TrEMBL record:
Biased composition (Polar residues): 322-333
Classification lineage: Archaea, Methanobacteriati, Methanobacteriota, Stenosarchaea group, Halobacteria
Biased composition (Basic and acidic residues): 273-284
Name recorded for this polypeptide: Uncharacterized protein
The organism's place on the tree of life at top rank: Archaea
Organism: Halorubrum ruber
Region spans: Disordered: 273-293, 309-333
Length: 440
């Protein structure tokens, strides 16, 4: 990390000061605006190496990545279904802070391109909860308290003592939310096995002076990723840099919050463990990645007008060509091995599979980014990839699970749409996939 950036992290002051800890409420001194607040980013979150940092748009509340998209500052697709680990839009903290010119207090580069209907605006560093198969262990846990802080309009606010006590138990970095009515905390650990649905959402008990009663949400490993909307408005009297493992506290807290209806019995937990082990037997372990996600988009793009006119990875779109200029002058499309592809004309992009979907007419450009989230379209895309675009690379390789779900869909076989396939369904779908052929 650059020395200047390190100095900024060390010297950043907490934006939120604790004035008084009372029996019912905690009195806080808060900034006038989230835009003007001091930002104190914890070292231990910076050092959590999962390529889970983005450039954050505070106005639209969406992640962006102009430094990975040739200056394009539109919203990015960050889900694990879209591209593999090496090609994701996420970055390290160092990459993001470099893109922001070493600043955490908002920056916009003159070279960044926004949508025609958007005014260029300052962007900020932001971290997300990474997907489990991209995460080191212990994973990252996010505690989101909503409607638990009441600003008074005079530069102060009150927080419920109930939330303050939970924050103190977690002994971790805590920040004020963008609305200044909530609190975020970060620890490491994992969701206890008895939590049904791998998240916690519960009402709290204590009212604010205006009668509002807030709630707590807990997300994290080993569930799928989540945008957190970090502000870095650190609350002093909570650890400045600590994002440490707090598994015992996580377990005791979830036990206190959840009713029997919100938890799994020991038998149900055992069933989940059995299914996870069965999944591991057929290649569905959390760390596995289908070879289909690793295809090189540069190779797929080498066709049509792009093949004729491209230079240094930019040129006319390989399918629809130039839109506002002739193909010979168009640069509405860019592609690279590490960053995937981007069409500026339709604000679309992704990896090799998304581009195959466009080239094969499975999706129109502008609607391709989520093709691998829809089983039947994913199936057609993977068949095209195997039989037409990369037969030598994909011969004998297992397709993504979402494509196997597409096999079951077209065969009318029931399966768990939100989770892993049972061994029986996996083996059935895999066998049928091998027998299928791409017909266009």
């Amino acid at each position: 990390m650059r020395r200047e950036t390190t100095r900024r992290l060390e010297n950043a002051e907490s934006a939120v000061k604790v004035i008084d800890v009372g029996e019912q409420y905690i009195t806080l001194d808060i900034p006038e605006s989230v835009y003007d607040a001091e930002r104190a980013i914890p070292y231990e979150l910076v050092e959590f190496d999962a390529k889970n940092w983005f450039v954050w748009d505070l106005d639209e509340k969406v992640p962006r990545a102009p430094h990975r998209n040739n200056g394009w500052a539109g919203r990015v697709t960050w889900g694990r279904e879209n591209i593999d680990f090496d090609s994701r839009a996420g970055s390290t903290f160092e990459e993001v802070i470099d893109a922001l010119n070493g600043r955490s207090d908002g920056y916009v580069d003159d070279s960044w391109r926004f949508h025609d209907d958007e005014e260029p605006r300052e962007l900020y560093p932001m971290s997300i909860l990474p997907h489990a198969d991209f995460s080191p262990e212990p994973g990252l846990m996010f505690f989101d308290f909503d409607d638990v802080v009441e600003p008074r309009g005079d530069g102060t606010a009150v927080m419920t003592r109930e939330v303050w006590d939970i924050v103190q138990r977690l002994e971790c970095y805590a920040e004020l939310s963008t609305s200044m009515t909530g609190v975020h905390c970060f620890t490491r650990g994992e969701m206890p096995g008895q939590v049904d649905g791998k998240k916690v959402l519960k009402d709290l008990n204590q009212e604010l002076p205006d009668g509002e009663v807030g709630h707590i949400e807990i997300y994290g490993y080993p569930a799928n990723g989540r945008v957190m909307g970090t502000t870095w408005m650190h609350i002093d009297q909570t650890p400045r840099h600590t994002v440490a493992e707090r598994q015992d506290t996580i377990v005791s807290l979830t036990d206190e919050l959840l009713d029997d209806d919100d938890t799994l019995t020991e038998r149900e937990q055992a069933k989940e463990v059995f299914e996870e082990r069965a999944d591991a037997d057929h290649g569905e372990s959390p760390g596995s990645q289908s070879a289909y996600y690793g295809l090189n988009p540069v190779t797929i793009a080498n066709t049509g007008a792009f093949r004729t006119y491209a230079s240094n990875g930019q040129g006319p779109h390989p399918v629809h060509g130039g839109t506002s200029t002739p193909d010979s002058e168009s640069t509405n499309f860019a592609v690279s091995r590490s960053d995937g592809w981007k069409c500026w004309a339709h604000d679309d992009g992704g990896g090799a599979l998304q581009l195959i979907a466009v080239e094969e007419g499975i999706r129109q450009c502008g609607r391709a980014s989520d093709v691998m989230q829809h089983p039947v379209d994913a199936l057609r895309t993977c068949l095209a990839a195997r039989d037409k675009h990369a037969p030598s690379t994909l011969r004998g390789e297992s397709p993504p699970t979402v494509a196997l779900k597409g096999v079951l869909d077209v065969q009318g076989v029931d399966y768990n749409e939100d989770g892993r396939l049972t061994r029986l369904n996996y083996e059935l779908a895999s066998g049928l996939f091998k027998e299928m052929g791409y017909t266009g």
